[in-house]
Automatic annotation (TrEMBL):
<dbReference type="InterPro" id="IPR036188">
    <property type="entry name" value="FAD/NAD-bd_sf"/>
</dbReference>
<feature type="domain" description="FAD dependent oxidoreductase">
    <location>
        <begin position="31"/>
        <end position="381"/>
    </location>
</feature>
<protein>
    <submittedName>
        <fullName>Gamma-glutamylputrescine oxidoreductase</fullName>
    </submittedName>
</protein>
<dbReference type="GO" id="GO:0005737">
    <property type="term" value="C:cytoplasm"/>
</dbReference>
<dbReference type="InterPro" id="IPR006076">
    <property type="entry name" value="FAD-dep_OxRdtase"/>
</dbReference>
<keyword id="KW-0560">Oxidoreductase</keyword>
<dbReference type="GO" id="GO:0016491">
    <property type="term" value="F:oxidoreductase activity"/>
</dbReference>
<dbReference type="Pfam" id="PF01266">
    <property type="entry name" value="DAO"/>
</dbReference>
């Protein structure tokens, strides 16, 4: 089988050196076999190793090959669904647990970066930017809601204040989260993989799991080997395919696209984003951007449902960038790439257990950098017998996409069209 390499992104071009990680050959035994070396798999592996479990991670391609090595790099707290929606759909105690955890993922990332000396250009501060007065009102209510759960670090910004942090005249205000921020996402994944190995964990690349033999001690099969484990964690997210049919039924892979400009130079970069915060707007189909360490603008947006690759990513994303920053009209685009995230109907993540010993977490519907790190911790707690926080996620209601994945793509596309109309008309 031919080996699967990183797509040609800015991140692959600026990745820190990593050792070769040979494919699995033969049979091994371990406490936990993890399928997928994105943030979910790597964070789970780290927390489990720190608790004394032995761990083997199987990765179909390379560490961070999926969304974790391609994303916008924005450390965005909370979930892809507002806490008041969660409060209305679950009981008070479950909502309290989920609300308390809403900002924990960013703390975990910072703790990992410090403890394991990960070089991933970590920067502090993220902005939610409102394009309409209605969006600003919504941010105000979000701030009050988050404050009820003790997250008091957020600053509401009016039009004059937001112009001090981003040189874009589209915004009427915003919310600054100093506990948010940004990272080089692939280098974070590579650093976490090195940390896993430093604690004795094994990672096999080019080793897709092709079958899970379920039972009291499950066996995960690859083309040339197998792993017998006490527990399995399925962390393949949008790249999992049909390996676990129960998981495929309730989720939809979606493609989203990112571009990176040529380096802008210190002066222009400082004019655009003086404090080097990352920004996402409040549209349903949102645009998001930030600077890299070498002062490029990374700009993402747009969703192609059903995970197709668009013929020309630059043609889709560059006009969005120029709408926000017309001053970049002469700037060249050096890289353009696409990646898949996993959408759920409720836009809330799916965490749970199949039988006694197969755990999973997936589907954070766009905002996954922080949630996946939290998920690793919560899964490790559950495997250690402390399931209170795991249950808070596992008890969230989830529904299949009408018609399954084949029909679901056109339906969600229709949904996307509706929401983009809402964004444009401001209702
Ligand atoms: C372009 C893009 C931009 C984004 N921007 C942001 C952002 O700025 N901020 C934010 O919070 N979120 C963002 N997201 C979402 C975020 O990146 C994801 O939610 C998160 O990285 C998911 O991590 P994961 O580990 O669950 O999945 P992934 O990172 O996709 O990892 C899954 C891994 O499993 C492997 N795998 C799959 N099947 C198998 C198998 N059978 N055997 C072995 N291995 C397997 C895959 O190869 C892959 O490496 C973005 C996503 C994309 C695609």
């Amino acid at each position: 089988m031919s080996s699967m390499q990183y797509p040609p992104s800015f991140y692959a071009a600026s990745a820190n050196a990593a050792p070769p990680r040979p494919a699995l050959q033969g049979e091994i035994e371990t406490d936990v076999c993890i399928i997928g070396a994105g943030y979910t798999g790597l964070s789970s592996a780290l927390f489990l190793l720190e608790r004394g479990f032995s761990v083997c991670v199987l990765e179909a391609a390379k560490v961070g090959f999926g969304a974790s090595g391609r994303n916008g790099g924005q450390i965005v707290n909370s979930y892809s669904r507002d806490l008041d929606v969660i409060e209305r759909s679950v009981g008070a105690e479950q909502a309290r647990l989920l609300g308390d955890m809403a900002f924990e993922g960013a703390r975990i990332i910072r703790e990992r970066v410090t403890r394991y000396g990960i070089n991933c250009d970590l920067k502090n501060g993220g902005v939610f930017a409102a394009i309409t007065a209605k969006q600003l009102k919504h941010l105000e209510s979000q701030q009050r809601l988050w404050e009820r759960y003790g997250h008091t670090q957020l600053e509401l910004m009016d039009q004059a204040r937001i112009r001090q942090v981003v040189d874009c005249d589209q915004y009427v205000g915003g919310l600054l989260d100093v506990s948010g921020g940004h990272i080089h996402p692939l280098n974070l994944a590579l650093g976490e993989a090195a940390a896993v190995e430093s604690l004795g964990g094994r990672i096999h690349e080019q080793s897709p799991a092709i079958r899970i033999e379920r039972g009291p001690s499950p066996v995960v099969h690859t083309a040339h080997g197998k792993v017998r484990a006490k527990f399995v964690i399925v962390a393949g997210n949008a790249y999992l395919g049909e390996l676990v049919p129960e998981l495929a039924a309730k989720s939809m892979p979606c493609g989203t696209q990112v571009i990176a400009t040529e380096p802008l130079g210190e002066e222009l970069a400082r004019r655009l984003l003086p404090q080097d915060y990352c920004v996402e707007d409040c549209n349903y189909l949102l645009d998001y951007y930030r600077l890299t360490a070498d002062k490029r603008l990374i700009f993402g947006g747009g969703v192609v449902y059903g995970a197709r690759d668009p013929a020309n990513i630059e043609a889709i994303i560059r006009p969005k960038m120029l709408k926000a920053f017309p001053q970049l009209a002469q700037v060249k685009i050096d890289y353009a790439w696409t990646g898949n995230f996993l959408l759920t109907l409720s836009r809330l993540p799916q965490m749970g257990r199949l039988g006694d010993n197969i755990y999973y977490s997936q589907g954070c519907s766009g905002h996954g950098v922080t949630y996946t790190h939290l998920a690793g911790k919560v899964l490790a707690e559950a495997l250690s017998g402390q399931a209170e926080r795991f249950d808070a996620f596992a008890d969230l209601p989830h529904y299949p996409f009408p018609g399954g994945r084949a029909l679901g793509a056109p339906l969600t596309q229709l949904g996307a069209w509706y929401y983009s109309l809402r964004d444009r008309l401001g209702f």
